[in-house]
Design a protein that fits this description.
Helix content is about 30%, strand content about 30%. The chain has eleven helices and twelve strands. Helix 2 packs across helix 3.
Amino acid sequence: MSPPRSIVERAAAPQTVPAITAGGLVWRPATIDDVATLTALTNAMAKADGAPYRVTREETEDDLTAPGVDLARDTTIGVDEAGEVRAYGSVMAPPGDESTVRAFLFGGVHPARRGQGIGSEVFAWQTARARQVLAASGKELPGRLAAFAEDSDPAERHDLIKRAGFEPRRFYADLKRPLIGDAPAIPEVELAEPLRLVPFSAELDDATRLAHNDAFRDHWGSEPQTREQWVNGRSEFVPEWSFVVIDESAVEAGAPVVVAYALSSRYEADFPVRGYSFGYTDVLGTRRAYRGRKAALAALGASMRAFADGGMEAAVLDVDTENPSGAQGLYASLGYVKEHGSVMYSIEL
C-alpha cells in the first residue's frame, strides 16, 4: 500500500496566485483603514441579494483581525477611481484545527460591477491562495476548502462556486421563535444537583470554551477553538443575555466545569432588514457526558427570557440541519421555524 499523500501534494498549491484584471480595478491587500468602505460593500451586496443581515463597522473589523488571517497575503480588494472598494476576496484558516485543516473563502462583487468577470477571477485568486495556505500549514491532516452561499444569493454565485470544483456539503437553517403575542411559554427547567444555571461571566469564559470544544468534537466540520479564536468576533455580544450551567462538584483548570452554555448577541443592524427585533443565540451546546440532562435547554430558556425582558420580539439561531445532537428536533419543539437557509460548498483534500 502506498503511503498517504502529504498535505503539500493534496493541496496542489500554485507558486503564485493568478492576477485579477477584470473590471479595470486596482488591486491591493486590505488594511484596517478599509473598514468603512468594506462595510459599505458588504451591505450593498447583502441588500441586492436579499440577505437577512447587515454588518457594522465593528463586525468588519472583527473579520479583518480574526486569528488565521494575514491581511497582507490573505486578502485582496479591488478599488475604483473614486477610491471605493468594489470587490474583495479573503481566505481564513483557523489556527486551532486538529482533525481537518481548513481554509474558508469569503468575498464578493458590488452589484453595480457584476457581470464583468470580476467574481470569477476573485474566486480563482481565493482558491489558489487557500491551496497555498493549506500546503504551508504543516498539518498532515485531511484538508478542506470551503465557501458559503445564502439560499437567497443569485444562482450565478452558486454556479460560480460549483464550476470551481466545490460541491454542496452542508446545509444550515436560520430559525426564528416569536417571544411576543401568542408565542408559547418559554420552558422552565429544574436541574438536578450538582448542576446549576448561572449567568455568563468573564471568569467562566475559558471554561465555556473548553465545554464548547468538548460539546462539538463529534460535530461534522467543527474543530477546537483557541483562546484567541474564542474571544474574536464579539462586537455584538451581550453577556447579560448569556448563561452557562456548571457542575458544582467538578473543577477543571482551576475553574468550575461548565457543562452547557448559551452565548448570545444583539445584531441590531439586522432588525430593520428582518422587520423585528431579536436576540441571537451564537453558540449553544452541552458536553457529551452531560447530554440528556436538559442543561443546554436550561441555558437556552434563560437566554430567551432575557431576550424577552430586553424587549426583543423573537429569538433567532442558526443550526446545521444534520446536527448529531438532535438540535433540530429540540428547536422545533420549542417553536422555532426556519426563515432562511445557506449552504457550505467544499473541496475535500
